[in-house]
Amino acid sequence: MTPDLECVDLIRRFGETTAVDNVSFEVPAGSFFSILGPSGCGKTTIMRMIAGFLDPTSGDIRIKGKSMAGVAPNKRPVNMVFQHLALFPMMNIADNIGYGLRRKGMARAEIARKVDEALERIGLPGIGKRKVDELSGGQKQRVAIARCMVMEPDVLLLDEPLGALDLKLREHMKIELKALQAAFDTTFVYITHDQSEALVMSDQIAVMNKGVFEQVGTARELYYRPESAFVAGFVGDSNRWRGRIERIEGGEMEMRTESGLSMRGALHGRQLSAGDTADIFVRPEAIRVARSETELASFDNRISGTVSSLLFNGAASRVLVQGGDGGEQIEVTLPQSGEYATLSKGDPVHIGWSGEQGNCFPAGAA
Hints:
Layout: E1 5-14, E2 17-27, E3 32-36, H1 43-51, E4 58-63, E5 66-67, E6 78-81, H2 93-103, H3 108-121, H4 137-149, E7 155-159, H5 167-184, E8 187-192, H6 195-201, E9 204-209, E10 212-217, H7 219-224, H8 229-234, E11 239-249, E12 252-257, E13 262-266, E14 277-282, E15 288-290, E16 301-311, E17 318-323, E18 329-333, E19 348-353, E20 359-362
């Protein structure tokens, strides 16, 4: 089956700077694909090339198998939703949604039918006569998407569309956007620097760094099996240590960190040897906290220390533990059982984790 979108060997240069460096990917029909990366990594440049606002230096973009080379932006079967939604304040909601259909010369009755249908789809029936400034931020977001969807694009491009919303509304809109994508059954290509947005909504995520895709995979694959140090550090939170590998046995290694800590981790197929300098990443939620060391007997890695800081955030509360060796602080997710509700700064604690939970990479690979 032909994918809705294919980008083949895309390169885009601005003078001596290569913003997009030989990127290839495809997006199956009806899927939610996100490009995740820090500011300046090249993700918006890709979006602008797909939309037709920029021409690739080389490479090809195909939509439904047809090359977009030389096709003007207004002739491409794509629509775009920006962070600043660009709704027309002088028009009511129905006129905003029907704007593109009027430009195409569609009959008034057909426009009204399509607008009503779109308002039903976005869960806002009967608001066509209302003004833009009468809507909440989330409602404006849905109207902006409806305005694009009535045009029946093969691909909808979304460039940081939740960036201007407050935190609580942004959390809500993540769920809404995924539901809208399923309701319209349209291919979404989503650009964001917010890992939470990408992880929650996407079928596939491309993590981009310095013009290239470091890894493309599902949220679970990126989170639990990062293929590069950059992905391990960028997606989710991690404790990170650097040290020298002292021993390798099977798929596991033992290293001595720069602060003198002995630590075990898993290679997960990476080519590392004894004597190499490596970075190891361990998620805060992979680390178990205990009052006594005997509770951690089954773990490869065990450290005794004291609580240096409590980071209370409800269900996402964490604690920083200072190891007895005086090394760096270790971030640990607190269990939600309530047994550590009275934990205080300066309290002695023990922490432990399995070597399988540590992802190792050659030092400096991020």
